[in-house]
Write a sequence for this structure.
């Protein structure tokens, strides 16, 4: 039982949702998949929210949800890949969370996202070069927000979970 939340951040396809499921199963933690909660509340897909209301509206929903989530504990919060773009969001994540940055190479990300159509930010940019460019633009924000960084390239999900938990325990 963790008296704080584990907040997973990182680029699309870094493995946040999969790692969240693994942590939840292994350590009896609750999971909140932010994108999913937002889709349920709006009764709309992320793609439609972007198309109908625009990105700022979606970012406001992320902020609102993070404000609510700081009252939880022992919860894995799997953030959308762009949640760290707002400083306010990072402040909210840190109020009761350890922020874990999951990383993967542009090539790995491409392999993981190439067949998905639900990521409006990658529309027309689903290639290794554009992914690398967007990742580079965001790098500073991801790194500044992170308490720890765990690379996921060529690792199994359980191995990533174990490494992550061990690193968090070392921090305590
Ligand atoms: C986004 C990432 C997505 C989702 C939305 C915007 C981003 O989440 O929140 O499409 O700006 O990086 P995943 O990282 O879970 O794909």
């Amino acid at each position: 039982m963790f008296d704080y939340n584990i907040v997973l951040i990182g680029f699309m396809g870094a493995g946040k949702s999969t790692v969240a499921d693994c942590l939840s199963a292994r350590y009896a933690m609750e999971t909140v998949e932010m994108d999913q909660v937002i889709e349920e509340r709006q009764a709309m897909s992320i793609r439609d929210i972007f198309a109908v209301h625009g990105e700022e509206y979606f970012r406001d929903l992320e902020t609102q949800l993070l404000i609510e989530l700081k009252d939880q504990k022992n919860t894995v919060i799997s953030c959308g890949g762009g949640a760290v773009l707002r400083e306010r969001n990072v402040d909210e994540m840190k109020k009761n969370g350890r922020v874990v940055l999951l990383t993967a190479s542009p090539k790995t990300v491409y392999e993981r996202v190439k067949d998905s159509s639900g990521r409006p930010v990658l529309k027309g940019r689903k290639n290794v070069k554009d992914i690398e460019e967007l990742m580079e633009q965001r790098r500073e924000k991801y790194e500044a927000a992170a308490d720890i960084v765990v690379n996921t390239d060529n690792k199994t999900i359980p191995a990533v979970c174990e490494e992550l938990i061990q690193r968090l325990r070392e921090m305590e």
Observations:
- The pocket of shikimate-3-phosphate is lined by residues 12, 16, 35, 46, 80-82, 119-121 (CB under 6 Å).
